[in-house]
Description:
CATH architecture of the largest domain: Alpha-Beta Complex
Domain Enoyl reductase (ER): 16-358
Protein name: Crotonyl-CoA reductase
Distance between the termini: 18 Å
Pfam families: ADH_N, ADH_zinc_N
Structural class: alpha/beta
Number of domains: 2
Keywords: NADP, Oxidoreductase
InterPro entries: ADH-like_C, ADH-like_N, ER, GroES-like_sf, NAD(P)-bd_dom_sf, Quin_OxRdtase/zeta-crystal_CS
Amino acid sequence: MTIPERMKAMVLTGHGDLDAYEWREDWPTPQPGPIEVLIRVGACGLNNTDVNTRSGWYSKAVNEATTGGAYGQVDDEDPTWGGAPITFPRIQGADVVGTVVAVGASADPALIGNRVMIDGWQRDWSDPDNKDKTGYFGSECDGGYAEYTKVDPRNMLVVHSDLSDAELATFQCSYTTAEGMLMRAGVDNNDTVLVPGASGGVGGALIQLAKRRGARVIAMAAEAKHADIRQMGPDVILPRAPADLRAALNNEKVTVVADVVGGAMWPQLIDVLERGGRYTCSGAIAGPMVELDLRTFYLRDLTFTGSTVIPPHVFADVVTYIERGEIKPMLAATYPLSQLREAQAAFIAKKHTGNIVVVP
Length: 360
């Protein structure tokens, strides 16, 4: 096929509100390096990393919940997931599904025509387990909010599935994040896992992946979304923020809390953990500043694990689960790429249950 010299793209021009995005129809099409491949994007999912990086929420200068809007104070030295500045202009978008259409001089031409999923975590393949040498697609390099993108083929996998590109684009960020959390917490069939924020992409993934491990799962979400969440297979569904969480659990013994919410409910989440329980976290959308009674932490023999950069095998594991039909997509809505601002507004407002995807 003929590769156009120019393409359509949604370009982030700086930290700020949704108007920091600029729609371009004349952006240079990326040229693959010697070992890279060029991908025609079929669909790209939205995730919190894109929102938080745009707004600068990762900066320690910001103490409030994720709003998706511009913040009055953002320290330019730590506004991204890795605590380092980002280069603008930047094309965001980590959850890419597409087709290889060209390869660099030293890349395998047999890759052309294959449908692939990109791993959001971009590795230094001379030291792939080194977290300090890991970047994120659409943050440290241009991503998939465009018609074309490029990648090192070691950072992608060919996928064999009957699912659509849009359905496949719901998996990468949400499910690898969830699998990384459950892996770090050592979840197995002896556990009962409490999942706050179960209506979001990571929350729904946590339900499915914890059930896959044989665990009992208790989901927490707004009651209007309980019918959608029930399709994910939790054993129990609770309101989003019970006034008395321990009473709402009704004698359920929670051994693991898998949290991306934080905020005002956080002390109750910790308080309901059984002795020797584990708390695993990969987000704080309701607020990063929480209060901890250290006596609860040490007297109850609790273990806390943070989870961001995951081992390389986790992405491959998730693709295998997809191909085996062991997990299902949570596609809430699709928007044209040109309507990324509207799509992110819906994402931020939690208008839908599950994941939102944009399509070039």
